Each structure stands twice: as C-alpha cells, then as structure tokens.
Amino acid sequence: MTEHLDRLTPRQIVFELDQYIIGQNDAKRNVAIALRNRWRRMNSPEDIQREIIPNNILMIGATGVGKTEIARRLAKIADAPFVKVEASKFTEVGYVGRDVESMVRDLVEQAVGMVRTQKKEEVKIKAEQAVEDIILDALIPPVHASGIAKAKTDTGSPNAIPEDEGELNQRTRERFREKIRNGELDSRKIEIEVQQNQSPNVGMIGGAVDDVSMMNIQEMISNMMPRRGKKRKVTVEEARKILLDEEASKLIDMDEVKLEAIKKAENLGIIFIDEIDKVASNKSGGGGPDVSREGVQRDLLPIVEGSAVTTKHGIIHTDHILFVAAGAFHVSKPSDLIPELQGRFPIRVELNSLTESDFYQILKTPKNALTKQYVAMMESEGVELEFEDGALREIAKIAFEVNSEVENIGARRLQTVMSLLLNDFMYDIPDIIGADSHIVVTAELVTEKLSALVKNRDLSQYIL
Predict the structure, then answer these.
(1) b or e along 31-50 (b: 16 or more beta carbons within 10 Å of the residue's beta carbon)?
(2) Beta pairing, strands 82-86 & 189-196
(3) Could you say which DSSP state residue 98 is in?
(4) Using omega within 30 degrees of 0 as the cis cutoff, is the peptide bond preceding 334 cis?
(5) Residue range(s) of every CATH 3.40.50.300 domain in the chain
(6) Residue % of the chain over a pLDDT of 90
(7) d(Cα 240, Cα 233) in Å, to the nearest integer?
(8) Which segments carry the region annotation Disordered (predicted)?
(9) Which residues contact 235 (CB under 8 A, 6 or more apart)?
(10) Residue 384 CA from chain centroid, whole number
(11) Which fold has domain 356-456?
C-alpha cells in the first residue's frame, strides 16, 4: 500500500501539484509534508506507529483560490480515497441534518470502489477469456464427448456421427474466437443471460430511520433473495461490456476487498471539510443558531480526534485519516472554533488572493487549463482554436477587474468570462462554422465582446 508513496518526496508532490494549481506555494508545501508523513509513519517501528498522529491542516482563504483543488489533487497523487463535505450541511445530533459519521462511511465506500476496480483490473485477462467462452457458447454451442457417445448408442451405428466432430467443433470455435478478438462479429446479435439482483423497495413504519440504515436493510434483504437470470438479446460488442464486469466480479473476493479498503481508508484516506467557518460561533454572544453550530463542532471533534465508526463494510478507526478543513473566515475567525477542535488542526495555512498575473498563468499553464479544454472541445468538431498571448492577458485583466468590483469568486470568474467570450462560436459550430475552420482569439476580439459588460456595473453584477 505504501509502494506508491515511496516515490513521492515532498518536492515531487509539489511538482505534481504545480501541474494543475498556480501559486499557493505555502499550502502546497504543507500538504506535501503531511502526505509524506503518512509514508514515514507506516515505515516507522510498530511500537510507535499508533502514536504518530496526522498533521491535520486548516486552510484559510477566499472562495476560488484553490483550497478544494489542492486537497483533491493531493488525493489523486497519493491514489487515496477522498471525500469532500460541507460542514454547514451537518447539524447537531437530535436536529434534522446529516450525521457527521456519514463522511467516514462515504470515505469507506470510495475506498471499496477503488480497491474493487484495482482487483477487477488484476483479473481482467481471465474475465475476458470467460466472456469469450460465453459468447462462443451463444454463437457455437460446444459438442461434448458424452453427447457424441450417447448419440452413437441411440442410433446403434458408430458412423452416425464422425469421430472428429469434437475436433471440428473446437477448430470452428477457435476461428470464431479470433473473429471476436478482431471485432469482426461485433454487430452480430446473440442471446445472453444476465444475473439480476432483486432490490425490493422497503419502507419503515414508526420511528425515523437514517439513510445509511435504510440502505443496509435493503441490501440485507436483497442478499437474502435469490438472483434471477434475465435473457437479453444484444450485439457481441454490447455482450462483451455487460459480461466483463459480471465475470470480473465473480473472480474477486469481496471480503478481501472490504478488508483492504478499510485499511486503505484508515491509513491513506483524506476528508476535506469545507465551510468550517460557517459552524464557528461568533464570540459576540447570543444563542440561537450558534448553539447548533457549536453542537456540530462537538460532533466533529471525536471523528477528527480518532474514534471507531461502524459502516456496512466493517468498523473503521479514524485516528490516522488526514483531515483538511477550509474556510474563508470573512465574518468569523479560526479562534472562534472551540479550542478542542482548533487543537486538532495544528497546521494553519493562509492562501493568497489571486492576482491578474495568477489569472494569466491559470489560463496558460495548467494541464487542465480552460483554454486547453475549449481547444479540445472544438477539435472534436474539426475546428482549430487558437488564443493569442495578448488575448489571454486581456481575459485575465477583465476577470480580475470584475472580481475586484463585483464580488471576488477567485478563479471561477474565468469560467464565466470564457463562456461569454466563446458562446457564440460554440453555438455556430458545426452549422455555420464548419470543420477545418480556424478561429483566432485576439485581444481586440476579447475587448469587443466583453469590455462593454465590464464598464456597465449593473450588467456586470447580473451577467459576469
């Protein structure tokens, strides 16, 4: 489980994050150290491993500066299960709202999905062979030796069925196997049997039952009911897709998957708690909503401190899950959180507001830059899209101005600006702007389409 982390030094992790996130070097360094510390803990002497607690991180910064993206990319780099939750969606125990333990259950579900996918990939070759055999049986039923012997006995003539019929059948099957592999039979229709789970709709009379308990009850009843096969007539290509997942599932041990998933979630899991500032109680006094906010914090505390949570896949201990909390803290401040929770997020990172230069780099540098996304979408229609450097600088300037004057929503403003800039082109492709066309976005084009909106403050508020 730590082989992947072995190659990820803190500098390498920051380098990987730099491919997608501009700036915020302090935050990147801290999350890189936190991730590497997981490998260090798992490679420490066993008697001290349990004592090394994760360095949970509190990110402070306005919306759209990269808090969520840093945590999500970190999880991808580490191949770790990742869950994002909003603290404001939780409510104190006894009130209507999500139970805080649900985020841990979601993390386990993520881990189970990841491990199941990995195991299916390991047995993919065997599963493909099994699928080929099923498709061949549908195309050319096999001739069994016992059937030949019975036919000979029934007719009383040893020459009724040729001696080499079994071999001939086998050769025919092998020829068809090659055709299946080459895709020559993809459009041919065959009849297959697909296993179906009977999932009854279960209702409860009496007291309220939470969603997780209801899902568990439904799954338990579903497992008790026999599986039924359903005949379907599909093409060979469709049959291969339908049967591959089914055959791969038969080859993996789900008990082993669950155990491995719980271990992965416990040691590598990352839970990102956004909007933590929304549950911080203002020290100015008063009751009302603040009571519930503090209740949410007290419910979060044992999960972050380390506790055992029961899930449908087994018990998971949260002691070594990495928690990353984030908030803008415009109204409240980190010190408004209850002291016990503050102490569980020892690493504080303040993210910088994005500058005009940052916007320019965001449009130009990352692997998933918006400009590259639009180029790829138009390319799918056969249209070549090109952005001049001056255009990128003008887009960055407009996005920065709107954020300064209307409301600062960070890098998300670029999506609004780019959408308004290119929507006319996207609408005209392919009816008016056909394949092999070449569109060049210049600084003049950007000014022509957007400057009037920026200057008109009323329009900016509603459109940009």
Answers:
(1) bbbbbbbbbebeeeeeeeee
(2) unpaired
(3) B
(4) no
(5) 3-118+258-350
(6) 47
(7) 13
(8) 151-171
(9) 186, 187, 188, 189, 190
(10) 30
(11) Helicase, Ruva Protein; domain 3 (1.10.8)
Q: Show contacts of 280-284: CB within 8 Å, 24+ apart.
A: 280/327, 280/329, 280/332, 280/333, 280/334, 280/336, 280/337, 281/332, 281/336, 281/338, 282/331, 282/332, 282/336, 283/336
Which architecture characterizes domain 3-118+258-350 according to CATH?
Answer: 3-Layer(aba) Sandwich (3.40)
Residue-wise pLDDT tens digits, 32-87: 999 999 889 989 998 898 889 898 999 999 888 999 999 999 999 999 999 999 98
Higher-confidence residue of 97 and 149: namely 97
Residue type, 99: D
CATH 1.10.8.60 occupies which residues in the chain?
356-456
Mean pLDDT of the chain: 83
306 marked ligand binding residue:
no
145 residue type, one letter: A
What tokens appear for 100 in the block? Answer: 């805080």
- Give 54-70 as a DSSP string: ---EEEE--TTSSHHHH
Q: Is 229 annotated as a binding residue?
A: no
pLDDT for the residue numbered 405: 84
Characterize 148-172 residue by residue with b for buried, 16 or more Cβ atoms within 10 angstroms of its Cβ, and e for exposed.
Answer: beeeeeeeeeeeebeeeebeebeee
Q: Is the pLDDT of residue 437 over 90?
A: yes
Q: Is 274 annotated as a binding residue?
A: yes
Q: What local confidence, expressed as pLDDT, does residue 372 receive?
A: 95
22 in a labelled binding site: yes
Which DSSP symbol is given to 355?
A: P
For the segment 293-299, the average pLDDT, to the nearest whole number, is: 86
Question: d(Cα 59, Cα 461) in Å, to the nearest integer?
Answer: 28
What Rg, from alpha-carbon coordinates, does the chain have?
29
- State yes or no: 217 annotated in a binding site: no
Q: Confirm or deny that 67 is annotated as ligand binding.
A: yes
Report the pLDDT value the prediction gives residue 345, as an integer from 0 to 100: 94
Q: Is 258 one of the annotated binding-site residues?
A: no
Distance CA 247, CA 127 (A): 5
Q: Is 64 known as a binding-site position?
A: yes
Residue 28 annotated as binding site: no
Please choose, from the candidates 413, 389, 384, the residue with its C-alpha nearest in 3D space to the C-alpha of residue 400: 413
Amino acid identity at 55: N
Token pair, residue 22, equals 């501009």
Express as a percent the part of the chain with pLDDT over 70: 81
69 labeled binding residue: yes
Query: CA-to-CA distance for 336 and 355, rounded, in angstroms?
Result: 29
The Cα–Cα gap between 446 and 442 comes to 6
Q: What is the pLDDT of residue 245?
A: 84
Whether residue 113 is predicted with pLDDT greater than 80 in this model: the reply is: yes
